[in-house]
């Protein structure tokens, strides 16, 4: 049988529905003069006639589903499937920048139709969008426009389409999506869209950080251990299911500023091919908002809370700025204020809210997720927050070792050895310097590095190391003098007088 050509399926439907609407209208007008039994009979026949004239079935796939307007997995998979299978046939396409930022990814534009053939059956996909509620003039694209795909097929293929065909579309679409997807860096910081007056939980940019484990200056053994741990995690879906644990792992990265904590997160994301969710706790109003953010996080992601020691006033024990404990009086005043504001813990993220986020019942949403906390002051953290099992792996990133320096020298100068290396090695033992400071001294003046540039950079570094060593020795001497018991000091002074 000849099926309706895809380009006219929508038009036919429009024509047919207006004809049916006309018939219905006449029936409604006439029903006042027609006996009830005859009216029912006629209605049944109208339905049958419509079915005969229009033997096609539609399934629509809206982009957003549910009360919380989460992007539908089906829509996203169909989008990827159609982008791969329809671009040779569709007449109107839209282009977006691809994974490597230099290529364009084509996909079907709105109000376009394409044909697909599966198991001997022809089906039609069309894309559409409902008009935005606010039709007024705006300089910005309409955000409340709702996009959807519609699948049309003959009713005799219903069983095959509902079963094998849709499973095929989902499987192929998801595989293409994983292969082609651009990784993203999400943040909850600018979650209010001023021109739309809407709250968005996460906003994102393309994640394009160049850090890898290869370029990370770290002890090779520590590096290997972390990479092994990440690989094992990634391959352990069955294991987590078998032991009844959510598929997630917590990392605590601690160490002084400039030792590579943030760089390591980027390297982890690149190694695992995961998205990054940078969770700014100070921008989260309360625990219920935290939960909302949490359920939005997709699998295959790293959730990062940087500087956990000062990013929230957890349980009233910490606050930004370094002062640790609050007096009980201060805590009482805050509690009273919160109660006056309409509820105890309603106005903030609490430690228990955060613990629930890490390993409570809500943490199981999504799966395949790494949670990373970073801090400069590990001792300031509440032990409950970082106990093993919650933060499974504690990694200290510290001052630059000779092994780490060699990685930086290779990255920045392209050298594996140099006559000045032994001097650098010795000074790295004597002075505490961060990889960030080492890297700063290894940036050559020109991009075409010559032997003299390498020497100049290494000499700069040696100078910086000498200075740091001197400063640290002076600080140690001052601290030692200040720590001497007063009696001993007085005795010395007395001895001096004699
Ligand atoms: N281990 C490292 N390997 C390679 N580069 C590093 C390393 N540590 C620091 N750097 C360099 O120093 C810069 C600062 O490092 P990074 O932001 O990762 O430090 P951090 O530990 O996160 O500091 P902070 O505690 O202040 O957030 C990076 O851009 C990177 O170039
Ligand atoms: Mg950092």
From TrEMBL:
Transmembrane spans: 12-30
One annotated GO biological process: response to stress
Top-level taxon in the UniProt lineage: Eukaryota
One Pfam family of this chain: AAA_lid_At3g28540
The family this protein is said to belong to: Belongs to the AAA ATPase family. BCS1 subfamily.
UniProt catalytic activity: ATP + H2O = ADP + phosphate + H(+)
Region span, Disordered: 469-498
Cofactor(s) recorded in Swiss-Prot or TrEMBL: Mg(2+)
Keywords noted in UniProt: ATP-binding, Magnesium, Membrane, Nucleotide-binding, Transmembrane, Transmembrane helix
Domain AAA+ ATPase intervals: 247-401
GO molecular function: ATP binding; ATP hydrolysis activity
Taxonomic lineage: Eukaryota, Viridiplantae, Streptophyta, Embryophyta, Tracheophyta
Family annotation (SUPFAM superfamilies): P-loop containing nucleoside triphosphate hydrolases (SSF52540)
Protein name: AAA+ ATPase domain-containing protein
Biased composition (Basic and acidic residues): 486-498
